Amino acid sequence: MTRGLQKTTIAICAALGLYATPVTATAQEISLEPLSSDIITNLLTGGFVVTQKVFVDGKPEASPTPFKVRYTCKAITGEQTGELTVTTETPARVDNIPLGTECELFEQDGDREGYTKTVGFDKQKFFVTDKNQVITATNTYAREQGVFKITSKIVGAETGRKFRVDYSCIDPKVSNGQGPVTSFLEVDGEATSPPLSLGSICTLTVPNQQLPGYALDKIDIEPKPEVVIGREPIDVTLTNNYVRSTGSISIAQKLQVDGKPANPDASIKVGYTCGGLTGEAELKNGNPARIENIPTGTQCEFTDLGGDRAGYIKNSQFDKQKVTVTTKEQAITLTENYNRDAGSLTISKRVTGNAVALAPKTFKFDYQCAAQRGTVEVRAGETVTIPTPAVPGLTCTVTEQDAQVPAATMATTYFVNGQPAGTQVPTNAKFLSSSDYTARVGKFTVSKKITADIPTGRSDFPFTYTCQPAYDGAFAPVDQALTITGTSAESIDLPLGTTCTVTEQDAPVAGYTWNAPASQSVTVGGSVLFENVYKRQTAQFGIANTVRVWEPLRNGTINFTYECVDPAHTKITGTLAVSGNGQQAIAPEKLPVGTLCTVYENAQDAQRTGFRHYAPEAFTFTVGEKDVNKVIGFNQTSTYVPVVPFMVPVVRLLAAPIMRLFDA
């Protein structure tokens, strides 16, 4: 019996690693000498060391703050409990725990205001296997988070346009020099910020966002442009106050009598129609008149309301008879020509329309009065007098030569003594040819090409364009809005020959990098293509696994499974083979910002014959903007404890003589 007990004891000690060299039990007689309590304690007890790690918002922290850790160890000789004080700089140690005892650890404090705490032990339950077993407690602190909500209002204009709001948030609890969180929201009625650290102070600013035809008067952010993030959403109201952009028109007068310049000596009136606005402008003794506060984009048309002069034939002409109001003042000139009535045939020319500048400067008329025939040239707004034969009841035929131009349509009406008529003109009558020139119009096309490694989900892209007039007085919009909701969009109607500069407005997408393409120039009838290149902001993650064993099993690998869902609800799954020697293995996938992942050890694959396996707890993480172009690292520990079926009965056999030694 003595020999068998001694052999068993030696085998246990060898298995427990208590001998420096292998020990072989022989068949010789061995006398069992009484063992001292110190020897038994050294041979059959072990201990463990508890170390502390602290991570705050994913970053390690060297914290002198002490943490309380309670332990419970259940041995066959009874239960042993206690409390340890540990910091990140000072570990705590427990000794004299019987080998093979199962222990469990619990952290009792460590809460921080404004943070959620997660406590993880690399081995919360474990068997005591030696004297220097190290257990690491990891406290992970994440800032509690909240959001702010923005409701946008528009005063003075009607539009469904999105508005950009920039924000910069500083977390006063961050003490490691981390800069502010800066980003923006696109508000279309309502928008909610991403989760932000509780207590963060956020400053909101709104860039000047123009609306065609309107000027931004002021921006109101209520209750104030600074918000403090709380547990409940913070409501902010953004009000953009717009006023209608207006322009003005200046009207000047020129007077010619018998083909010579003259100083205006009386007041005349000019009638105007600007959309739904009508009125009269008075030019006093040649001084210009101004029409003000006309909404931009309005088309105005003018009429000469001046009277005739006795003994003269009058013909008047506007250099721009129709204009479109812009923020730049439009200047027009009315020229009045008076020619003495000599009792002969008079031919006058008047040009109207929005393309007066495109019309010819002179017009040719063929005439025949009995045997008298000829051709005369008449300038727009002027009159030519032709002596006619003194034949009672004489009628002249007047024929106007073609005066069409490529960039405008022309419609001509004839008048005799102020009444619509044909080309038969009695002698001493006044013949007027009035031609209306209307610009031919067209559009240009703006196309959009999207290049993205992952679909962005964005479908609307705002542009503005500013045009140079094709001719003097031609309509040329400034900051005209254009939005592409598909692949292309067309401009409004513009006179042929108009050249415009097209600029894309802000079109960023959260979670993507994007640079605005350069402005492009285009002429009516042409097209331009803008390409937006979006690159997803991504990160990778890696796992470093340390295997803790009684016998070294660190040369093999353990599989970890990861299951991720990106912001587009696309599932990303895979398995990562991680060695047990603490070297990091990196998953190949590049995960977009906002991706949520769960990672766990494949416990079934990790089983080893003769060992009890303790897998690390599964963990989750979300890829943040701070992780872009980085590898997010995680440390895991897999624990193996040998299974020795005969150890408990043997320890029971040894317990009685050991206890007697302590009683002695």
TrEMBL record:
<feature type="domain" description="DUF5979">
    <location>
        <begin position="148"/>
        <end position="242"/>
    </location>
</feature>
<feature type="signal peptide">
    <location>
        <begin position="1"/>
        <end position="27"/>
    </location>
</feature>
<feature type="domain" description="DUF5979">
    <location>
        <begin position="345"/>
        <end position="423"/>
    </location>
</feature>
<feature type="domain" description="DUF5979">
    <location>
        <begin position="48"/>
        <end position="142"/>
    </location>
</feature>
<protein>
    <recommendedName>
        <fullName>DUF5979 domain-containing protein</fullName>
    </recommendedName>
</protein>
<feature type="domain" description="DUF5979">
    <location>
        <begin position="444"/>
        <end position="547"/>
    </location>
</feature>
<feature type="domain" description="DUF5979">
    <location>
        <begin position="554"/>
        <end position="631"/>
    </location>
</feature>
<feature type="domain" description="DUF5979">
    <location>
        <begin position="256"/>
        <end position="338"/>
    </location>
</feature>
<dbReference type="InterPro" id="IPR046022">
    <property type="entry name" value="DUF5979"/>
</dbReference>
<dbReference type="Pfam" id="PF19407">
    <property type="entry name" value="DUF5979"/>
</dbReference>
<keyword id="KW-0732">Signal</keyword>
